[in-house]
Amino acid sequence: MSDHSEAPVRPVEAFEPPYYAVVFTSVRTQEQDGYPETAAHMEELVQDVPGFLGMDHAQTPGGLSITVGYFRDAEAIREWRSNTEHTAARKRGRVEWYQSYSLHVAKVERSSGFTRPAD
Q1: Stretch 52-59: mean pLDDT, rounded?
Q2: Going from the N-terminus, what domains does the chain have, and what CATH number goes with each?
Q3: Of 25, 99, 104, 119, which has the maximum CB count within 10 A?
């Protein structure tokens, strides 16, 4: 969601299953007034949710954006969904910022990762 050009690029680590992945895929409108600030604020807020594990984000040159949030359990997802500031941001997103989006919630049953050792 925010610009991490200063930070090293790497995916969220693999966690011990089970846990949940919330996949938010979107195409935004031309009207983006306030979006970058709101997205950065949402990224800060979600980190305070007990059970939030991390977030990956990618965007294609054509404008498709994919954000995956990882949560320890369904209760953590419910808590994030019921956050009043997040609710307001979702409503504003439907009115102003998103041309279309989809949301998928999946239970992760297997997880692994790899990081090349530093030379």
Answers
A1: 96
A2: 19-108 (3.30.70.100)
A3: 25
